[in-house]
Amino acid sequence: MSRPVLVVGGGPSGLSAAHALAAAGQRVVLVDKADRLGGAPILSGYAKLVPSGEWARDAIGGMVRRVETNKLVEIRKGVTVKSFTGSPGDFRAMLSDGKTVEAGAAILCTGFTHFDSVNKPEWGFGTYPDVVTTTQVEQMFSSGKGVRCPSDGREPERVAILLCVGSRDRQIGREWCSKICCTVSANIAMEIREALPRCNVYIYYMDIRTFGLYEDLYYWESQEKHRVKYIKARIAEVTSDGKRLLVKGEDTLVKRPISIPFDLVVHAIGMDPNIDNMTLSAVFDVKLQKHGHIEKASTYSNMSESSRAGVFVAGAATGPETIDDSIAQGQSAAMAALALVRSALLEAAE
Ligand SMILES: Cc1cc2nc3c(=O)[nH]c(=O)nc-3n(C[C@H](O)[C@H](O)[C@H](O)COP(=O)(O)OP(=O)(O)OC[C@H]3O[C@@H](n4cnc5c(N)ncnc54)[C@H](O)[C@@H]3O)c2cc1C
Ligand code: SF4
Predict the structure, then answer these.
(1) Which CATH class is domain 117-271?
(2) Average model confidence (pLDDT) across the chain
């Protein structure tokens, strides 16, 4: 029998890798540092997902249940990997609970860390309770309570969503685009308009990147059907006049200073590299790319390979990714790992 494949991280990419391997009859050990599986969509309480409109708890929760009930998948929650030695087909992982796993290959599906808005203090987060993040708005929807101003629980009449918070920002060392936040923000804006039809929602942007088919479904739909307003602006600061929050900056289309009052300001936070990546790089002996994501060895011939043979990588661990692409990459990495452990088995039998 071949050795199991070690999958590190049980978010969308890790769940899809584990499922694909088990579906092919391959044993898997799935390790996650959190005490529940599901990754960011479950751990951060996302509401309805883009683009399917399914609740995260149903869509990703279903992927969790599929893996948790599979006898070929052994799950270790609340655990990290402390050391990883050996060679392809014959690795040995020491876990933080003191147990050892012998594995034929490993797949790193360790995802990302949400940008912490306290690193953008001039935009009001941490100073004003009614400046929140997109994850907080997702949690308001998924809890069933709806969107409210945290300071006093009232329904907001005016909401501003600020894009690119912690992305495309050289001043704070985040040069990448987080790919999905324009679309997620347009989706949130439409949901707010549906739930609170009298509420005006404004999206402040540098550029809109509702890529591919999302342009029509989210960018145009949000404006034409839901009357969401878009302002192309450079934001200077978020302050308060004592009654309402003020978003101050320059309207870059008309080149004039603007200061507009709001009840609720939402930061569309980006996807940072996982804060564990330095440790993961040392433990698994894999290279990181210049921004701190786990480096892929090849873009085309085998997109799942890391810089170390037998260690594969998938999903947002490699850079900002959507859920569907993370799932596809998990399956791709599963295929590569399966090919490796099966060929090691054949060689041993010869
Ligand atoms: C606000 C927001 C909303 C979003 N909404 C959508 C959406 O609607 N649709 C969409 O397509 N995408 C959305 N995304 C993107 C989505 O979150 C990612 O595509 C997805 O979570 C990536 O899945 P993943 O499995 O690669 O990583 P993650 O979801 O980050 O999962 C990684 C897993 O690895 C575990 N882990 C991390 N480090 C270690 C370690 N050292 N040891 C062991 N385990 C570890 C974590 O606990 C976690 O369970 C959104 C992103 C943001 C920021
Ligand atoms: S997807 Fe949109 S909001 Fe997110 S970083 Fe890119 S341009 Fe900014």
Answers:
(1) alpha beta
(2) 97
Rounded distance between C-alpha atoms, residue 160 and residue 158, angstroms:
7
Residues of the chain with CATH 3.50.50.60: 5-111+274-349, 117-271
Determine the distance separating the centroid of ligand 1 and the alpha carbon of 78, expressed in angstroms. 16
pLDDT at 345: 78
Which atom of ligand 2 lies closest to the CA of 182?
A: 2
Asked if residue 11 has its Cβ within 6 Å of ligand 1, the reply is: yes
In this prediction, residue 348 has a pLDDT band, given cuts at 50, 70 and 90, of confident
pLDDT band, very low/low/confident/very high, at 161 (cuts 50, 70, 90): very high
Nearest-5° angle of CA 313, CA 316, CA 319? Answer: 95
Residues sharing a CB contact under 8 Å with residue 144, sequence separation 6 or more, in sequence order: none
Q: What is the pLDDT of residue 344?
A: 78
Name the closest ligand to CA 134: 1
Closest ligand to the CA of 324:
1
Check: CB of residue 336 under 8 Å from CB of residue 293: no
For residue 347, the model assigns a pLDDT of: 82
Residue to substitute in 133, 135, 181, 214 for testing ligand 2 pocket (most ligand atoms within 8 angstroms of CB) = 181
